[in-house]
């Protein structure tokens, strides 16, 4: 089950599309190592479709329906310096879709704050968790600097940003204040 996005309206969707286009014009979108070749080709259009009129759940369903994920992926083995093959988790479509949809949603809300439409962004729990991570719980209720968050997410595409933000699979996101 995806996140409950409190500010997912027409303006947020428009700004999400703008941010996807920003990434495409500035070096490309984040491409997960879980995506197969077909998935890499479809990813921008599927993400734009979800931002236009879907959710992270519809994006995950599109990833699965279009067979966009590899069965196995590789990662570096720090002990040997080589790589290790592992099975892509069955939860990968939902985790990927939620993470990327949420990051574009956050970027859109940052733009709304920077335009003066709202005054702040605040972290909240958008999906129930029986065992929430302590680092996620510490973020709930916290206001974030919209300009810093936007710049970091544009720079890093959400990979190890130098800002405390809702992380993939945490069940948290932001709302306008």
Q: What is the number of helices?
A: 6
Number of domains: 1
| Order of H and E elements | HHHEEHEHEHE
Q: What order do the strands of the largest sheet run in, or round the barrel if closed?
A: 4-3-5
Average residue-wise pLDDT = 93
Shape: globular
**Radius of gyration computed on alpha carbons:** 16 Å
Percent strand equals 5-15%
Describe the biggest sheet? 3 strands, antiparallel
Spans of at least 5 consecutive residues whose pLDDT stays below 50 are none
Distance between the termini: 25 Å
Range of helix content: 40-55%
Count the E strands: 5
Structural class category: alpha+beta
How are the SSEs ordered, and which strands pair?
Layout: H1 10-25, H2 37-53, H3 56-65, E1 72-76, E2 83-87, H4 92-114, E3 121-125, H5 134-139, E4 143-144, H6 146-156, E5 172-176
Antiparallel strand pairs: 1-2, 3-4, 3-5
Question: What does this protein structure show overall?
Answer:
- With 177 residues, the chain is of the alpha+beta class.
- The protein has one domain.
- The protein is 47% helix and 12% strand.
- The chain is globular, with a radius of gyration of 16 Å.
- The model has no long low-confidence stretch (mean pLDDT 93).
């Amino acid at each position: 089950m995806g996140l409950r996005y409190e500010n997912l309206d027409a303006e947020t969707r428009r700004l999400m599309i703008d941010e996807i286009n920003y990434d495409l014009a500035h070096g490309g979108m984040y491409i997960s190592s879980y995506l197969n070749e077909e998935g890499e080709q479809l990813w921008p259009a599927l993400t734009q479709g979800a931002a236009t009129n879907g959710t992270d759940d519809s994006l995950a369903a599109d990833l699965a329906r279009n067979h966009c994920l590899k069965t196995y992926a590789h990662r570096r083995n720090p002990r040997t310096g080589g790589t290790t093959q592992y099975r892509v988790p069955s939860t990968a479509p939902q985790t990927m879709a939620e993470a990327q949809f949420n990051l574009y949603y956050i970027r859109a809300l940052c733009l709304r704050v920077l335009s003066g439409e709202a005054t702040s962004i605040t972290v909240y729990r958008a999906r129930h968790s029986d065992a929430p991570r302590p680092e996620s719980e510490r973020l709930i209720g916290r206001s974030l600097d919209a300009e810093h968050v936007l710049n970091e997410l544009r720079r890093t595409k959400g990979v190890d940003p130098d800002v405390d933000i809702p992380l993939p699979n945490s069940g948290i996101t932001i709302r306008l204040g």
